[in-house]
Design brief:
Residues 2-117 form the NADH:flavin oxidoreductase/NADH oxidase N-terminal domain. With 145 residues, this protein is of the alpha/beta class. It has helices at residues 27-38, 54-63, 83-90, 101-105, 109-115; strands at 10-13, 45-49, 67-71, 96-97. The protein binds flavin mononucleotide.
Length: 145
């Protein structure tokens, strides 16, 4: 953070995500308290997975004074974040939305969202396989200029 400055630094948080066997019983108190401590550092944004109940993210929204990016889905969920999930969180106070798997499978993701074209699904078999296949091999629906 010292090298680039707080205004160019953000933090990704996965409240109550249960990843790697971590169990949280106090997310509703813990994350707003964490954000109250982080806020004076002047970070540009928090980037939060919607991995906790809605009330936890709502409390985080109230506790965070700057940009909040929401990734609408738990990573273990086979349902990928999509336009409807994005709009739901924009309506609940998110400033920006991030899409993970949808971005992998749709090289023209922004145009698809603009035109309300169905999103392609990516093949999880390639997630950690290495190489271009499954990352750079998905076709565009909208012809790219
Ligand atoms: C191949 C792959 C790698 C990922 N790597 C990370 C990671 O390194 N750190 C992290 O916080 N989340 C990681 N995630 C989780 C995503 O950031 C995101 O939270 C998840 O895919 C759910 O959102 P989505 O439905 O938009 O894909 C990864 C997801 C995928 C599919």
């Amino acid at each position: 953070m010292q090298a680039v400055g707080a205004t160019r630094t953000g933090i990704r948080l996965s409240p109550d995500a249960g990843i790697w066997g971590v169990r949280e019983t106090d997310a509703l108190e813990l994350y707003p308290a964490l954000l109250a401590e982080l806020a004076p550092l002047g970070l540009a944004y928090i980037h939060v997975i919607a991995s906790a109940p809605d009330e936890v993210l709502a409390a985080m929204r109230r506790a965070w004074p700057r940009a909040m990016i929401v990734n609408p889905n738990h990573p273990a969920n086979t349902t990928r974040s999509d336009r409807a999930a994005a709009e739901r969180w924009l309506g609940r106070g998110a400033d920006l939305i991030s899409l993970g798997r949808a971005f992998i499978a749709n090289p023209d993701l922004v145009e698809r969202l603009r035109r309300d074209v169905a999103l392609a699904g990516e093949d999880p078999a390639y997630h950690y396989a290495g190489g271009d296949t499954g990352y750079l091999t998905y076709p565009s629906y909208v012809p790219l200029a």
